[in-house]
Amino acid sequence: MAGTAGGFFLSDGSTAMINPYRQLPSLDALLQQDDLARLIDRFGRVAVRDHARSVLDAVRARIQQGAEAPDGNRLVSEIRESLEQELAPSLLPLINATGVVLHTNLGRAPLSAAAMRAMTDVAHGYSNLEYDLKEGRRGSRYVHAEQLLCRLTGAEAALVVNNNAAAVTLVLRTLAADREVVISRGELVEIGGGFRIPDILRQSGARLVEVGTTNRTRLDDYAHAINPQTAALLKVHRSNFRLVGFTATVEISELAELAAQLEPPLAVLNDLGSGTLLDSTQFGLAYEPTVQDSVLAGADLTMFSGDKLLGGPQAGIIVGRKTWIEQLRRQPLTRALRVDKTTLAALQATLTAYIRGTAAEEIPVWRMISATAEELRKRAQTWAAALREAGVAAEVRTGESMVGGGSLPGQTLPTTLLALPAERPHLLAQQLRLARPAVVPRIEDDMVLFDPRTVLVEQEGLMLQTLLNTLRP
Ligand SMILES: *Cc1c(COP(=O)(O)O)cnc(C)c1O
To answer: Could you please report the per-residue DSSP string of 307-358?
Structure first.
């Protein structure tokens, strides 16, 4: 008797359906197979047995509905998919071909090699995170990046917390709970992800006092709003939009001068957002306020992110006057916002590159920003040539990259893009996102575009291979 698809020839030449349930292996037999042994190595016997059992149950239910029994390979891949969907890590590295250097959805700043080494070093074993090696007793985790931050910014003291949203909340809660904070109507911004300055103020228990208008705020507006209930004057950087036309804004230096005339003096707070240490104009960009300028202009506390233009790990950095920083350190909320050892290690290593003066070469974010037009054109052309050689229609076109991540709004950098014409560009983009490693391109004019600026050089080979595998399966 020869088996055919789903039936057997009987000796009289007719066919009879065999019982499809009988074609399914038993759970025990299934677990003996080599393919499943590999899954057991990855996910453990218990999980594989559970998933194999539910896949078998589902298959039996389908057979009941009239479906055929799946063959062995199909069965194994159903079990693998089921396991991967539940248990494979969901956080995956990917290739950012969007040309947005600081992409919040894609994890913001990639870290420098030195930062990653420093993280691994402290992660591998124990460290003196909160231990004074000289005295042999408890120390403070907050000392670790402080001296570097003070040297780089000119501030007296510094404190690092979990992110800048936490830094702003902590500062307002500590300095202004149940009191008033004066802010310009032009700076009541939403940063993204629901982070709105008025909400943060409310959360921290401070009362918001709006002054000026959306487009114009003058020093007088602040001066008139000050009363014995006032705790601070807050300035918030317009990270993600520009105010143009008939406008007037007040500088930190003017606020500092105003605050200093009062007794006791008011705190001048500056939420810088991206807070760069390098002068962005040297890379052909507009001026993004530096942390040093904020300190020099007289801000009592300046808050900024670790993973925006600083190019380090996620962190919220507060620099400024020692008396305020000490107050922040004593505040119980600080304990809830504290950073872990790997963050501090990466931050120290990142800051050290600025001390050495090698940040523009060492820190990926700045390397990407400072990539020359010539260099980017060559890379895009090389990609296109490699794909054409493999029979794929590929072109290059000029385009623009963005800094993104709440810095330099509206600013673009000229680049050259790899462009793949596609009948269904959104489908191709989705296939690339679902490939491993995932590649995230952008789409314009029915073209799927890849910007070499944000693709790490060491990822290029893998990216081209993924493109080929996806385009010519
Ligand atoms: C980005 C940003 C924040 C939030 O910083 P996170 O580090 O993302 O928490 C706050 N304020 C401003 C002005 C920003 O640009």
So the answer is: SSTT-SSS-EEEEE-HHHHHHHHHSHHHHHTPPPHHHHHHHHHHHHHHHHT-
Residue 76 clears pLDDT 80, i.e. is over it: yes
Separation between Cα atoms, residue 198 and residue 185, nearest integer Å:
10
Which of the listed residues 362, 385, 417 is the one where a domain comes to its end?
Answer: 362
Q: Which of 362, 379, 400 is the last residue of a domain?
A: 362
Among all chains, which residue has been given the structure tokens 């790997």? 342
419 CB within 6 A, ligand 1: no
Q: How many domains does the chain have?
A: 3
Range of the domain at 160: 110-362
- The larger pLDDT score, comparing residue 174 to residue 239, is at 174
Q: Are residues 241 and 377 in the same domain?
A: no
Element at 160 (helix H, strand E): strand 157-161
Cβ of 275 closer than 6 Å to ligand 1, yes or no, is: no
**Domain shared by 221 and 333, yes or no:** yes
Looking at ligand 1, which atom is closest to the CA of residue 305? 7
Give me the sheet containing 180-184, strands edge to edge.
Answer: 157-161, 316-320, 301-305, 267-273, 230-236, 180-184, 207-211
pLDDT tens-digit readout, 329-367: 999 999 999 999 999 999 999 999 999 999 999 999 999
